[in-house]
Design a protein that fits this description.
The chain is of the alpha+beta class. It folds into 2 domains: about 190 residues, no CATH class; about 70 residues, Alpha-Beta Plaits (2-Layer Sandwich). The chain is about 60% helix and about 10% strand. The protein is built from 10 helices and 4 strands, in the order ααααααααβαββαβ. Strands 2-3-1-4 form a 4-stranded antiparallel sheet, with helices on one face. A hairpin with a 6-residue loop joins strand 2 and strand 3. The protein is elongated and about 75 Å long. It is a multi-pass membrane protein. It comes from Anoxybacter fermentans. Keywords: Cell membrane, Membrane, Transmembrane, Transmembrane helix. Its main location: membrane.
C-alpha cells in the first residue's frame, strides 16, 4: 500500500514538472514567435494574437468541455490525472508568463528549442501516466464517433487543422516552422518514453556457442539466453545466444566472440529500455 501511494505521489509530481516544462517552452519560445505547433496550445496561440486572450485561460476554456465530453462519452477512465494536467498546464502558462524572458526572435531556433522543451514536458507527463488533454481527447472523441478514424489519424487531422489556421492567420512560413516544432517534440517524447538507447542487444550465431556462453557469464558477468534455431539453407541445428550489454561493453563482447570464433555471425541492435537485474528496476504499478 505504501509503495502504491508513493508511486501515485511520484506520478503527480511528474505531471506537475512536465506541465511546467511545457508552459516554459510555450512562453519562452513558441508563443512570442507565433509558432502554433498544433493542438489546443497552438489554437490558443492563434486566438491570443487575434483577440488578446491569455493562452492559459483559452486552453482551460477549450479543455474543460473536452474533458467533460470525454468523461461522458468515453467513460471515467479518462481520469482525474487528465483534469489535473489540464489545470496545472493552464495555470502555469499564465502565471509564469510575466516572469520568463523571450530568449530568441529567430523562428528556427524557437521551433527547435520550443519543440524540444514541450516534447520533454509531454514525455514526462506521459511517463507519469498522465495527459494534458487537448488533442488526445479530441482524437479519442473523433475515433468514438467516426471509427474509421484511428487515434493517430485523429491527432494528425487536429494538428493539421491548427497549423492550417496558423498559416492563414500568420503566414505559411510560420506554419512550416510549426510543423518542424511538432516533429522535434514527437522525437523528444519518443526519447523520454523509450529511453536513451543506453543498451545493446546482441545475437550471436556460432558453432562454439557453449564456449562463448561460458565466457560471457564468467568474464563479463552478464546473463545469456540460449535460443534454439536452425540454418535456413543447411537445416543444421544451432544455438543462438542473446545478450544485453551496455554500450561500454560492446567492444569487449566483440573481442571475446572473435577470439573464440572468428567466423561467428553477430548482430548488434539498439535497445531503448531494459528493466531487470543489472539494468533499470521495474516500475511499480
Amino acid at each position: 500500500m505504501k509503495d502504491k501511494i508513493r508511486q501515485i505521489i511520484i506520478d503527480y509530481l511528474g505531471i506537475v514538472i512536465g506541465s511546467i516544462l511545457i508552459a516554459v517552452g510555450l512562453i519562452i519560445f513558441l508563443i512570442p514567435n507565433r509558432i502554433a505547433a498544433g493542438g489546443v496550445s497552438g489554437l490558443a496561440t492563434v486566438i491570443y494574437y487575434l483577440f488578446g486572450f491569455p493562452v492559459g485561460i483559452v486552453m482551460l476554456i477549450i479543455n474543460i468541455p473536452l474533458f467533460l465530453a470525454g468523461v461522458k462519452v468515453l467513460g471515467k477512465h479518462v481520469g482525474f490525472r487528465t483534469l489535473f494536467g489540464i489545470v496545472v498546464l493552464s495555470l502555469a502558462t499564465d502565471l509564469l508568463t510575466p516572469y520568463l524572458p523571450v530568449l530568441t526572435k529567430d523562428p528556427l531556433l524557437a521551433s527547435l528549442y520550443g519543440g524540444g522543451i514541450v516534447g520533454l514536458g509531454l514525455g514526462i507527463v506521459f511517463k507519469s501516466r498522465g495527459t494534458t488533454g487537448g488533442t488526445d481527447l479530441i482524437a479519442a472523441l473523433l475515433h468514438h464517433f467516426f471509427p474509421a478514424f484511428s487515434i493517430g489519424q485523429g491527432l494528425l487531422l487536429v494538428d493539421a487543422m491548427v497549423i492550417a489556421l496558423a498559416g492563414i492567420v500568420f503566414n505559411a512560413e510560420l506554419a512550416l516552422y510549426a510543423v518542424l516544432s511538432i516533429f522535434v517534440s514527437s522525437k523528444v517524447i519518443d526519447l523520454i518514453q523509450e529511453g536513451l538507447n543506453l543498451a545493446k542487444a546482441v545475437l550471436i550465431i556460432s558453432d562454439y556457442s557453449e564456449e562463448i556462453r561460458r565466457e560471457i557469464l564468467h568474464k563479463m558477468d552478464r546473463g545469456v539466453t540460449t535460443l534454439y534455431g536452425s540454418g535456413g539453407y543447411t537445416g543444421r541445428k544451432k544455438n543462438v545466444l542473446l545478450v544485453i550489454v551496455t554500450r561500454s561493453e560492446v567492444t569487449e563482447l566483440k573481442h571475446l566472440v572473435h577470439r573464440i570464433d572468428p567466423k561467428s555471425f553477430v548482430i548488434i541492435t539498439e535497445v531503448h529500455e531494459v528493466m531487470g537485474e543489472g539494468f533499470q528496476e521495474f516500475l511499480s504499478n
